[in-house]
Amino acid sequence: MTAKILLAAIALAFSAGSAVAQIPPSTSTVSVTNTSKKGSLLIFPMINIDPGASADTIIEISNDQVTPVQVECYYVNEQKGRVGFGFEMSGKATVSWDVRTRTGDQIRPPPFPSYGDYPVFGGIYRGELVCFAVDQGATQQIAFNHLHGAASVLGVGGALKYSAWSFWALNAFGSGPAADNTVMGPPGAIRLDGRPNDYDACPSYNAASFMPNGATLGRLGAGGNYLAVASCNQDLRQDYQLHTTKLLFTVWNALEQSYGGSYYCVDSANFVPLIDNDAHLINPTNFDYKTLGTSGASVVMQGVASAECPTSVYGVTQNAGLLGVIASYVRIEGGNPALIGGDIHSAGTQPGFVYWDPASVVSLKPAAFCSFANSIASSCSVP
Q1: CA separation for the pair 367, 363 (Å, rounded)
Q2: How confident is the model at residue 28 (pLDDT cuts 50, 70, 90)?
Q3: For the chain, what are the domain ranges?
Q4: Is the pTM of this model over 0.90?
């Protein structure tokens, strides 16, 4: 009798285990973008074709699936000039192009925008590239988690290469990538919250190691450090609204001493010189060897709402997830300056959005999405 009871208990346990296996995966963990996976949305924070710096940028985007996909892209410069373009990628294809000369392999891109509405934000030769999978008519964003990309930024005497920040389009459980060609949310509104049926969330802060301006270590000497930063509050539409934030920096030297009070007010695409001759950077000496006193340091950067950014220029600032790339000009044994840099690290979660113009006469948005946007920004900016 005891043996029968034991066997029945074991059978019941296996039966319960089978039932548990059918429960959808937990959605308690929020999926976050990074630079190492493939995705349906790619953001390149650093595009530079500044002729004064002999700069250029080479873009590479690959489709790792055997089926084709339509891709929609937008250039946005620091002054908010923008242009959209689209192309089809066949299975296992790679498209690449030179942003400055527009020469390319399997693509003829438009010129990088040479105008802007906000000169105070920076220049027309620097900015970002945002690309994502859409249906064949470019009327709505879709899941196609097989895209990956990289950018090579050329400068005087050197270059850096970084990977695009890649976002999954998530399945109905939020536990992994959605099936190919799944329609993702209302047309023109890409939701970056890491939740079911949306896209990966953004990180709440970025972190990077760097050699302070003016420091030397071995044969290497640091000239100046720079960040390219894209916000996760993106409005790519022609009838766009500004989404601004304050970049708040905390720096640590090798002795674990911290230096705060440094910040920079920005919009959604910015090139940030971490040097003491930049008028927009508050407390720039926090990044110098003379202040830090060590040849190695680290910086944490977060996008926060703040009254310190003048509303006459920036409007009402918002909390924002950030996507960054770091660059440095260095010298080897006193030689000519050379450009180096690459990806930076991130942690935490912060929701965001990408608004774009679908190929339709009128783009309508359910009221439910307005409440979602209101939870991130001060107002719902998709009409």
Answers
A1: 13
A2: low
A3: 41-202+357-374, 205-347
A4: no
